[in-house]
Amino acid sequence: MFSIEHEFDATVITLVDDFAPPAPGAPTTPLQEDVIIHAFEECVTINQYDPRLGETRTITLSMAQLRDLGAALDLPEGVYTRAPQG
After folding, report:
1. Which residues contact 41 (CB under 8 A, 6 or more apart)?
2. CA dist 3 to 6, 22, 39, Å?
3. In 3D, which of 42, 39, 34 has the Cα closest to residue 5?
4. pLDDT at residue 20 is higher than 80
5. N or C: which end of the chain has fewer CB within 10 A?
6. At 26, is the pLDDT very low, low, confident or very high (cuts 50, 70, 90)?
7. pTM recorded for the entire structure
8. b vs e for 5-16, b when ≥16 Cβ sit within 10 Å of the residue's Cβ?
9. CA–CA separation, 69 vs 74, rounded Å?
């Protein structure tokens, strides 16, 4: 499940690890904490609470890193560079 909210300076997407029963005989997987993504004009931040540390962890991606991630999801194993835009 996920939600999308448009705020003044960012779009906020929340990913909820909702329960889906496993296939018969498959091991159950513990639910993970919600993932909150803030899409700003210049970067994207990804936040998730870490219950082991008792704090929220944040990853910041530049827009170039986000484009690379999107491209990487559709490519086979290997090392790639992307042509500059423009």
Report:
1. 9
2. 10, 24, 13
3. 39
4. no
5. C
6. confident
7. 0.79
8. eeeeebeebebe
9. 9
Q: Which two tokens stand for residue 34?
A: 């919600």
Q: Rounded CA gap, 39 and 30, in Å? A: 28
- Residue 54 has which token pair? 């008792």
The span from the CA of 49 to the CA of 9, in Å, is: 22
Amino acid, single-letter form, for residue 7: E
Q: What pLDDT sits at residue 86?
A: 66
Closest CA to 45 of 2, 85, 14, 8: 14
How many whole angstroms separate alpha carbon 25 and alpha carbon 35?
28
